[in-house]
Amino acid sequence: MKRLLICGFIFLILCTLLMVKCSHSVQEKKEQKQHHQEVEKYRKERKQGDQYESFKQLMRYERDGYEIEFHEKGGSDLLVFSPHGGEIEPGTSEIVEAFQESYSTYLFEGTKQDNNRDLHITSTNFDEPILVQMIKTYPFSISIHGYKSDKRHTLVGGTNEKMQRAVVRELKDRGFSAEMVQKGERLSGTDPKNINNRNASGESVQLEISTAQREAFFDKFETRKGKKKAFRRYINALKEVLREFDPSS
């Protein structure tokens, strides 16, 4: 009789634990469904422009699907970065990574299965805390971006016109199409609120590289596997400019 009571008690405990586990599972699924509904509702409300106006807002709706990588190079006075790396503006991460041996770099990368464009925060609103704090410590910065175009082309903006002209010159000398973007024009990168201009001096260069040009850098653009000679020529052009202007090189 005593053994039966013990067995019954154990059975009751197991049933209770199972019910609690099921309850937690149901609650978790309910929360996931609610979160998904909130995200979809927010997306419908913001059909045009960026989904998110700040990093804090992005974190509220995007629980994962992005990575932040900061590589500090001792003695570097230059930060090369992309706030739209990974699958947000494909090909920009690989360009930034090509400078890691000599300069400090930063990447905010989209790693979602799809809808990575949702992670795009425009440069004047980009306020991811690590970049906001670190860029203040660098006298100069270069931001790498991508824009949609079927023409192989690079728009060179930023606040340092002398360096802009040098970038255009070196790219053209190596067979690339490039032009300066004047202050006030779209994609000029001259707004003081632009994260690229919030470094220690306000001096910057911004590269907007077309889709067609980025595609031409890789054997397979979808995976960015197999860098072509064009990729190395492009990087060498930028490094030549940096050797001319960066005191830490």
Q: What can you tell me about this protein's structure?
A:
- The chain has helices spanning 2-45, 55-61, 92-97, 129-135, 161-173, 211-215, 229-245; strands at residues 66-71, 78-86, 104-110, 140-147, 154-157, 178-180, 203-210, 218-220, 225-227.
- The chain is α/β, with parallel strands linked by helices and 249 residues long.
- It has one domain (67-245): 3-Layer(aba) Sandwich (Aminopeptidase).
- The strands form two sheets. Strands 1-3-2-4-7-5-6 form a seven-stranded mixed sheet, with helices on both faces.
- α5 links the parallel β5 and β6.
- α5 (161-173) runs antiparallel to α7.
- Residues 41-47 have low confidence and may be disordered.
Provide a concise account of the structure shown:
Residues 29-48 are annotated as: Disordered. By secondary structure, the protein is an alpha/beta fold.
Q: If you consult CATH, what is the topology?
A: Aminopeptidase
Q: What is the straight-line distance between the termini? A: 85 Å
Beta-strand level of the residues, as a percent range?
15-25%
Backbone CA Rg: 24 Å
Strand order of the largest sheet: 1-3-2-4-7-5-6
The class by helix and strand makeup works out as alpha/beta
List the helices and strands and how they pair.
Elements: H1 2-45, H2 55-61, E1 66-71, E2 78-86, H3 92-97, E3 104-110, H4 129-135, E4 140-147, E5 154-157, H5 161-173, E6 178-180, E7 203-210, H6 211-215, E8 218-220, E9 225-227, H7 229-245
Parallel strand pairs: 2-3, 2-4, 4-7, 5-6
Antiparallel strand pairs: 1-3, 5-7, 8-9
Helix pairs in contact: 5-7
Organism: Bacillus safensis
Protein name: Replication protein
